[in-house]
Write the structure tokens for this entry.
Amino acid sequence: MSLTDDRAALDQWYTLGALQDFPDGAEVHSRLLGEDLTVRRLADGVEVRAAGRALPVRTEYGHLWTSFGTPERNLFELPESREPDRRWIHCGPVRVRASGLRLVENFLDLAHFPYVHTDILGSEAHPEVAKYEVEQRRDVDELWATKCEFYQPKAAAASDEGQISKYMYRVVSPFNVMLYKTPPTAPDRWDVIALFVQPVDEAVSVANAFMLVIDDTSTDAELSAFQQMIFVQDKIVLENQRPSLLPLQPGRETPTRADLSSVLYRRWLKEKQLRFGTEPRTDLPNA
Amino acid sequence: MPKLYDYVLSGSCYKVRLLLNMLGIAYETQAVDFFPGREHKRPEFLALNPLGQLPVFEDAGLVLRDAQAILCHLASSYDASGQWLPRDVRFGSVMMWLSFAGGELMAISGARMIAMLNYPGDLATLQAKARTALRLLDDHLADRAQAGGLWIVGATPTIADIASFPYVALSHDAGIGHEDYPAINLWQRQVRKLPGFVGMPGVPGYF
């Protein structure tokens, strides 16, 4: 497979991982959208090259970002990254044999908590997804799901007891998503948990989980282990989901009311005419 | 209280968590940032285990490394029934399969780190070694089933089963499915039914 010709996918910012994983002087091989890349950390910055050309580079939020095309917008805003009391936790890249869009959609889903993250993010006695709101914010081209609530036996590494967690979800680009969630120790603020997906090939992705959290008690190892536990519980489900590419064709998968954010996400991907990581459609003219 | 130096995604730590739970032993854990932090290669951890490997288990002044050795210690110290580490003609066979679990079967662990966490290494070679080990275990379990046996050694589960189960169950993370190993599948179902069984990320309870 070689570089995709999907314009909508090319014109986006993608992470290649945490900056700390690119040591000075070393050349690191990576891959994005079906094309091999080399990354070199230099004294005055980072160089990303593919097929003999240098690609644009950004280094915001502790991560390395690049693009093959010309993104319409700058990288998303993350104001919480400027708050001095937040812990920055890089949970490490995990490779998943699934479309990156499947990863994002799973991240947006509340309904699986009791069954996949049993007795942690949900319990089978409380499976209901309460009504929440979704909106497409056209000024920033982001999707938001707000007023989400869920009963969680162990909402975070620092939890001693169950709580009703409040959530907001924010999709900032097709492969980058984050959630805002009530920290057990600071109910008036929001923890930020981000999933930056590096789409390697159509059905192979690298997931970079990154947290900006309020927590004075847990060690870095505990915070990272909690998030890795959650994500690897999802991994086995994602890798067994069929089709592994996200279907956008009407009727291929049937949403319920709890899937409101997924419905909006798929509509938004269609509006962008994104194809990378989606199942080929047979219902379009000239498809 | 006994203390396990633990990493949530480690199949070797899972061996110890499994037996601790099945024997009903209370213990505390200390999370070690194995990935991405490589805390197990830092001086503080190397002082505990100069090999720089997980798990490490502290119990009444003892500091033990190696999952198989820790299983032996737990069975020897906490299992009054003697079922998990039998001191009779079965002892040698249990030891033989423990060595296999800590040896040949660990090719799955190596392949898993490459496939899942992008560690350097030769994935195809390790996958081939892993398949050879799984074939051997599947043939053994098929022979056992022919003779009416459910477990790797003898008529009851032993630490040979506990040491072998985690990486067999996690092989999908290494890109190896279970479809070619029917006797292993039957045996896995038996292990999952044992009182005190717990899963881990990648070994869900809903199977």
Residues 3-78 of chain B form a domain with the Glutaredoxin fold (CATH 3.40.30.10). Chain B has a mean pLDDT of 97.
